[in-house]
Amino acid sequence: MMAVAAAVTLLLFFASCMGASVFCTGAPAAGFEDVPTVPFDEGFTPLFGESNLGLSGDGTVRVTLDRHTGSGFISKHYFHHGLFSADVRLPAGHTAGVVVAFYLSNGDVFDDTHDELDFEFLGNRAGHRWRMQTNVYGNGSTARGREERYLMPFDPSAAKHRFSVLWSSDAVVFFVDGTPVREVQRRAGAGMGGDYPSKPMAVYVTIWDGSTWATENGKYTVDYRHGPFTAEFSGLVLRGCPADATGDIRQLHRATSVHRCAARERELTTAEYAVMTARKRAAMRRWRWKQTLYTVCYDTDRYPEALPECDVNAVERQMFERWGESKVAFRSRQSRVETPLAPPLVSMNMMQAD
């Protein structure tokens, strides 16, 4: 009886937002509008495929994938924590197999113990919707993947939308248009603990061919007859404490270097956009209820016991096998627009995108 009551309460809680004709964000994007941006030439440098990189007069950076190469750029500095953000517009049309990524990593320095925080945007067939994936890895913990995958509540090729990662020594929060959509905490015993990303990371933007896995586990590959594929990035934010450029990056996560950035981190974590209020967490839960297609926390095939940082809701976990399909179908009936159903969740092969 208690489980039934909990299910009814949970469904009623989200009914008003799910039935709305517009996306309900709940909490406003407080504080994000005041965060300063950085010009490309000041904060970034080309990474690869420089012939497929373009910079316009308004500061918009374009990364392109064609049959010859993808492209990407990287921040000039590594950072000890911070807020990292970009306004992103993705390619339109048939984009199956295309991967656009906005992420933090130190994999080029720490081969076996690298840290990584990802936004990955996974293309789809024409008329089907882009997927968004978030990943959290620390200290080389890729064998314990912490992926999540979502539908976005808008067409990311029609206009720019802001994607942000807030990374502190205690928590990682992913934001979409200022609304928190995922929070991962470090806390010992009930969090990631030693798997938490703790070493300085650089910021990357890339576009590349992910045909082997990106669209329905490789069923649909990049068709270059529909290319080239171009994503736009603007409003770039690097709000963090740069690692000491004169030191050995492999030693910069040690206590003395971290202490140098302590004041900057306090400023970061007390900013209005960083404080996770009850209202923001309610908005996050609404977003997740509507948009999540896959979460590692409910994948009992991979992890019979949930990872320690997972906030497991018993009702949601029981619904896991039909979770994504039931939500997409519900919205389709409301809008009278056919929406493609997600593949069966339990069988999804969540491969890491490097």
UniProtKB/TrEMBL annotation:
Pfam hit, one: Glyco_hydro_16
Domain named GH16: residues: 30-233
Primary location recorded for the protein, binned into one broad class: secreted
EC id: 2.4.1.207
Entry's localization field: Secreted, Cell wall; Secreted, Extracellular space, Apoplast
Entry's Gene Ontology cellular component terms: apoplast
Catalytic residues in the record: E116, E120
Signal peptide: 1-19
Post-translational modification: Contains at least one intrachain disulfide bond essential for its enzymatic activity.
The entry's keywords: Apoplast, Cell wall, Cell wall biogenesis/degradation, Disulfide bond, Glycoprotein, Glycosidase, Hydrolase, Secreted, Signal, Transferase
UniProt GO BP: cell wall biogenesis; cell wall organization; xyloglucan metabolic process
Keyword GTP-binding: no
GO molecular function, one term: xyloglucan:xyloglucosyl transferase activity
Family note: Belongs to the glycosyl hydrolase 16 family.
Physiological role: Catalyzes xyloglucan endohydrolysis (XEH) and/or endotransglycosylation (XET). Cleaves and religates xyloglucan polymers, an essential constituent of the primary cell wall, and thereby participates in cell wall construction of growing tissues.
Protein name: Xyloglucan endotransglucosylase/hydrolase
